[in-house]
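One such given next:

>
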Amino acid sequence: MEEFLRYVIGSLVEFPDDVIIKRTETSSSAVFFVAARTSDIPKIIGKNGHTLRALRTLLSASADKRSMTAKLEIIEP
C-alpha cells in the first residue's frame, strides 16, 4: 500500500523526492502520514478535497482486501 501511495502522490506533486510517507501499523490497521512541501500540499488535497478523498477510498479498498483498515493523514510543515 505504501508503494501505491508513493507512486500516486509522486505523480501529483512537483517535487516527488520531497514527499515523506511514514506508516504506523498494527495487525489490523495502518495509518499513513504524508508530508510534502507546502506548495505541493494543495495538489495532494485537490479541489474541495476530492483528490484526498479519492486516495483514501482507494487505500481503504486495498486494505479491505487484506482484512485491514487504513487511514491517510496529511502533515503540513
